[in-house]
Design brief:
The complex is a heterodimer. Chain A is mainly alpha-helical. Chain A is 77% helix and 0% strand. The N and C termini of chain A lie far apart (77 Å). The chains are: A mainly alpha, B alpha/beta.
């Protein structure tokens, strides 16, 4: 290629491709890390809810929830 | 047991993801990614797997790729979006997209840190409910009789849904025993250490559903049935939430509709009675315009679930007249009609005991009615939690049983009573009619208080008819669990893979 308008002034086409590939790779790493952060957070919230259901306050308020369930059923 | 309540840290999720990608690349014979950094390993594996997905254009392999990347079975919408993206873009764009978009949705509730194993050579049996709790109602009884026989005769993989419901996992020893060695699960020592759990991914094999999944599981199973290349099959218990919605709790209806979304794409459904089979066939007929069915729907009728040694014990109903009514107390079971008929008969001067065996229940004033009758001195007995042996003894002592259910998939209490030679009054349509037509029964319209009353009066006052029906009942040939298990395996496994 005699002249490439899109090429960076300081690099050859091969260097530009390598740079873009590196940027894509970094983008992919970032996205995978974000995925892991998001899954970990959703699992943490899920587990917190599970723990809440084992507490005394959850147990003593069980009759209230049972009454509410009956109301909804009827 | 099983999955701990410890949330995983992001670096653990990434390491497990890279390991899963290794499993998938090895499965397809692709070169394994090198290096120690899990992010780089996943990206390298993804490049290989995406290239393969573009080369083969196999939707099942795309489903497996989504499952592997996220650690959870994808929903329909995930697979459909991925298919469209694959068809519209090149592999590089697809790789970026699958990383940034599709992985989030299915994995939020996935078990993303379990090591993955692909199961392709044996059928996968979903026994979640049976494995994790001690309930012993109809569906669990079918599983606990059938699966030990399947495990004895065939290679198979028993699985349960992982705690966050995103994928299948292997079973611990106690769970396994609950399914294939019921009664011995409590013998597992407290210090027993299970093998590490695995995330199990069925691929190009049969996936059998002997129980009804919840709505979230159904969403993922529908995608599996449609796109994965697995043949998903099911035992068809009944269509009650759809055919008789007025008799079921509202929330059960919503779950059941999701389940029908799976049934629609199954390869085979084995109805537990001819009546239940007809209901499922009716569903496929109803959806035939938009979804021409290639699903096999056949009846594989349940056997009678009574151990032979129990049947060998002689009946003892020589004492006071006893009327037995077995089942949970809910509108569908029609116990209000039985109480009404009994009260009329007591007022007419007849002397008998009325026993109700069965727990749970909802949506009726049954408990209040029983309390009022007891206050009046009526001989009505209510047992909510009974063991099998107490139930068998009750069948032996009962003069007859009453089971005027408004809608059943099978009618186990009728079949059990007849196996003991105990006459029965039951509904004159549906699956109970199928059982009653073999003898030993008086059939009634369960919506007619007068017919139920007249039938109970006849059996209470005419011992000759009771004896004739008992003789008929004893002559009915019993179907065995071995026969059932063998026929079921053929329909749900052999004929679909």
């Amino acid at each position: 290629m005699a002249h490439d308008e899109t090429s960076h002034a300081s690099g050859s086409p091969d260097e530009k491709i390598a740079e873009l590939e590196e940027r894509i790779h970094e983008f992919q790493r970032t996205e995978l890390t974000r995925w892991a952060d998001s899954v970990a957070e959703s699992q943490r919230v899920f587990d917190e809810l599970e723990r809440m259901k084992t507490t005394v306050s959850w147990r003593v308020t069980a009759p209230l929830r049972a009454v509410r369930r009956k109301q909804l059923e009827n | 047991m099983a999955t701990s309540l410890t949330s995983k840290k992001p670096h653990e999720l990434l390491a497990a993801q890279a390991d899963r990608m290794d499993v998938a690349t090895a499965y397809f014979g692709l070169p394994l990614a090198e290096g120690a950094d899990p992010l780089d390993r996943t990206i390298a594996s993804l490049d290989s797997l995406v290239a393969r997905v573009y080369e083969t254009r196999d939707n099942g392999e795309l489903w497996l790729l989504l499952t592997t990347l996220s650690g959870a079975f994808p929903y329909d919408r995930d697979v459909e979006t991925a298919l469209r993206f694959r068809d519209e873009h090149d592999p590089i764009a697809f790789t970026d997209w699958v990383i940034s978009a599709s992985a989030i949705s299915p994995s939020a509730s996935g078990s993303s840190t379990l090591p993955m194993r692909i199961v392709d050579s044996v059928p996968v049996i979903d026994v979640s409910s049976c494995a994790i709790n001690d309930r012993q109602t109809g569906i669990q009884r079918v599983e606990r009789e059938t699966l030990p026989l399947w495990a004895r005769d065939h290679d198979l993989e028993l699985v349960a849904w992982a705690r966050r419901d995103g994928s299948y996992r292997s079973l611990g020893e106690k769970e396994r025993r609950r399914v294939v060695a019921w009664g011995t699960h409590k013998d597992v020592p407290a210090d027993h250490v299970d093998a590490p759990l695995e995330l199990l991914v069925p691929f190009r094999t049969a996936v059998v559903l002997p129980e009804v999944p919840n709505h979230d599981q159904s969403g993922r199973l529908r995608a599996m049935a449609r796109h994965s290349g697995n043949a998903v099959t099911a035992i068809g218990y009944d269509m009650i939430p759809m055919m008789s919605p007025e008799l079921m709790p509202r929330e059960m209806g919503a779950d059941f509709l999701e389940y029908l979304g799976v049934i629609k794409y199954t390869s085979a459904v084995a109805g537990i009675s001819q009546s239940a089979t007809n209901e499922f066939r009716g569903f496929f007929t109803a959806v035939a315009n938009e979804h021409p069915a290639d699903t096999t729907v056949v009846a594989v009728e349940l056997p009678t679930a009574v151990p032979e040694k129990e049947l060998a014990v002689a009946r003892d109903n020589s004492g006071e007249l006893i009327v037995l009514c077995v089942g949970s107390h809910e509108p569908r079971k029609n116990h209000g009609t039985v109480l009404h008929a009994a009260e009329k008969l007591w007022r007419e001067g007849l002397d008998f005991q009325l026993w109700f065996f069965g727990g749970g229940g909802w949506g009726t004033d049954f408990d209040d009615l029983v309390t009022k009758l007891k206050r009046k001195g009526r001989k009505v007995e209510l047992r909510k939690a009974v063991s099998d042996s107490v139930l068998w003894d009750a069948y032996r002592r009962a003069s007859f049983t009453v089971f005027p259910s408004l809608h059943e998939g099978f009618g186990l209490p009728i079949a059990e009573a007849l196996a003991f030679g105990t006459p029965a009054i039951t509904t004159n349509y549906g699956s109970t009619r199928e059982i009653a037509e073999r003898g030993g029964c008086i059939m009634v319209d369960p919506r007619s208080d007068d017919e139920v009353h007249a039938a109970m009066r006849q059996l209470l006052t005419e011992p000759v008819i009771r004896e004739r029906l008992a003789t008929e009942a004893r002559a009915i040939p019993l179907r065995s669990w071995d026969e059932y298990a063998s026929e079921l395996w053929k329909v749900l496994v052999d004929d679909v893979v």
